[in-house]
Specification:
8 helices, about 210 residues, binds 2-acetamido-2-deoxy-beta-D-glucopyranose, rod-shaped, mainly alpha
Length: about 210
């Protein structure tokens, strides 16, 4: 189905002026000729006075100032003007969205960066060496969070699980410095950690919040 915006109907109406009840004398097409010329079309072939409109395909049939060619020109003109308008409107919406996206994006990255920095700042005083030796675990997690936010194909739940696992391994080693802990032992410990919830509900809460 062809779609013509309402501007086209204005042209139709202009090209088919209402007839008085006498009806015998054909009305002048001066206004339509002027409008048609103003749209940049040649006036040759444009009626001086109304003609019968059976040939019209889009405008209402009846007495009219439009020929088939005029009707087609009006329709095309109307369509191209409408499309240009839509394009223009689309451009400003796109600009608005781009600006908002940019500001959200830098806000969010800023938050992520700030939380990372706050953590780095706070940990050394609380955990001292324990932290500095194991900073990589946190760095890795934030690296993953940044990638995830940028749309990399990262499974956030897995990244968080991985973080807690690495953290648990490190803490376990640190808390049992008198033992030499082999990897198989660590693996086994990690496997059974879930039921003991060494970090209580924190991993679950964090996962819910992050995702
Ligand atoms: C109006 O547009 C149609 C389709 O784009 C085209 O085929 C036709 O030639 C145009 N008519 C005029 C009179 O420019
Ligand atoms: C946040 O940190 C990342 C990586 O460290 C950096 O590329 C980005 O520019 C920072 N963004 C802001 C808003 O500080």
């Amino acid at each position: 189905m062809r779609f013509f915006p309402w501007g086209f109907w204005l042209l139709c109406v202009a090209s088919a002026p209402a007839r008085g009840d006498s009806g015998s004398k054909a009305r002048s097409c001066a206004e339509v000729r002027q409008l048609y010329g103003a749209k940049g079309f040649s006036l040759s072939g444009v009626p001086q006075a109304e003609i019968s409109g059976e040939h019209l395909q889009i405008c209402p049939q009846g007495y009219t100032c439009s020929t088939s060619e005029m009707e087609e020109n009006f329709a095309n003109k109307s369509r191209s003007e409408f499309e240009a308008m839509m394009k223009e409107a689309g451009r400003s919406v796109r600009t608005t969205l781009t600006v908002q996206h940019k500001s959200f994006d830098s806000y969010f990255q800023d938050l992520l960066n700030k939380s990372e920095k706050a953590l780095y700042d706070a940990f050394p005083s609380i955990y001292g060496e324990l932290y500095t030796q194991n900073m990589k675990v946190l760095k890795d997690l934030y690296g993953e969070l940044h990638c995830y936010y940028r749309g990399s194909n990262i499974n956030l739940e897995e990244a968080l699980d991985e973080f807690w696992t690495r953290l648990l391994e490190r803490l376990f080693k640190l808390m049992n410095p008198q033992y030499h802990i082999i990897d198989e032992y660590l693996d086994c410990m990690v496997k059974h950690a879930e039921q003991h919830k060494p970090f209580r509900e924190v991993p679950r809460d964090l996962k819910v919040k992050a995702t």
